[in-house]
């Protein structure tokens, strides 16, 4: 693992717990591998445009090799974000839970990088579409903070957690199947409960930094 892409999804800056935990993880990764390089991509506090009709028309244009220039322009940011993803081998996403899912800026980024012909392909088999992932050899770590409790695997609210499942499914769809999720829970509980959860997440992340 030599190239780390950190995608920050929280709209909060210094107050963001997922961002703080992620920065701590990155620091541990860089300490373990001094020659690793880091790129940060802000999506929580920057505006990644939502997908609109021009994007859809351009992304699904039937002859991509002869896509007109105005359509290429509609995909320019997506191309930058896809190139950026492909140029790194460890993807680290700070992803707060928002309304049982992820903040809209992070979803907008996801919509830009799940790209036909660039990160996945569609093959027809007797008229039925089959999807083929095009991304290879990458790992991802998702670091999340949640206000509530019990959203992890086996927890009482696991079925309500559409954040981890969305990210893992979309990343798996494009070929990133080695995905770890580390969570701090209880930001809306009393301080000690949340601090204990953050401390457990930090311990897990330190171990993970030595193994990614
Ligand atoms: C708009 C909004 C929606 C939220 N939805 C949820 C939710 O569905 N479940 C939950 O446990 N916490 C929810 N929270 C609490 C956040 O997950 C919690 O504050 C988390 O620490 C935010 O991440 P950050 O500290 O990195 O900004 C929500 C917070 C906001 C602002």
From TrEMBL:
Keywords per UniProt: Flavoprotein, FMN, NAD, Oxidoreductase
Domain Flavodoxin-like fold: 3-201
Entry EC no(s): 1.6.5.-, 1.7.1.17
Binding locations of FMN: 10, 16-18, 97-100, 145-148
Coiled coil segments of this chain: none
Pfam families: Flavodoxin_2
Reaction(s) this enzyme catalyzes, per UniProt: 2 a quinone + NADH + H(+) = 2 a 1,4-benzosemiquinone + NAD(+); N,N-dimethyl-1,4-phenylenediamine + anthranilate + 2 NAD(+) = 2-(4-dimethylaminophenyl)diazenylbenzoate + 2 NADH + 2 H(+)
Co-factor note (free text): Binds 1 FMN per subunit.
Cofactor(s) demanded: FMN
Family: Belongs to the azoreductase type 1 family.
HAMAP family, A to Z: Azoreductase_type1
Physiological role: Quinone reductase that provides resistance to thiol-specific stress caused by electrophilic quinones. Also exhibits azoreductase activity. Catalyzes the reductive cleavage of the azo bond in aromatic azo compounds to the corresponding amines.
Subunit-structure text: Homodimer.
Protein name as it appears in the record: FMN dependent NADH:quinone oxidoreductase
Species: Pseudomonas benzenivorans
């Amino acid at each position: 693992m030599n190239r780390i892409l950190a995608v920050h999804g929280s709209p909060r800056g210094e107050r963001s717990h997922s961002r703080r935990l992620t920065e701590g993880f990155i620091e541990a990764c860089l300490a373990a591998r001094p020659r690793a390089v880091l790129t940060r991509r802000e999506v929580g506090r920057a505006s990644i445009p939502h997908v609109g009709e021009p994007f859809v028309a351009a992304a699904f244009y039937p002859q991509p090799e002869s896509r007109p220039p105005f359509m290429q322009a509609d995909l320019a940011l997506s191309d930058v974000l896809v190139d950026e993803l492909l140029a790194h081998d460890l993807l680290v996403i700070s992803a707060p839970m928002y309304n049982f899912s992820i903040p809209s800026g992070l979803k907008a980024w996801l919509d830009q990088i799940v790209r036909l012909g660039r990160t996945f392909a569609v093959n027809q088999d007797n008229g039925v579409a089959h999807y083929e992932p095009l991304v290879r050899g990458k790992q991802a770590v998702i670091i999340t903070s949640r206000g509530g409790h019990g959203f992890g695997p086996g927890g009482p609210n696991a079925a309500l957690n559409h954040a981890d499942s969305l990210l893992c499914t979309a990343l798996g769809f494009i070929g990133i199947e080695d995905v770890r999720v580390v969570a701090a829970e209880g930001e809306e509980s009393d301080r000690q409960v949340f601090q204990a959860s953050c401390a457990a997440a930090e311990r897990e992340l330190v171990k993970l930094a030595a193994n990614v």
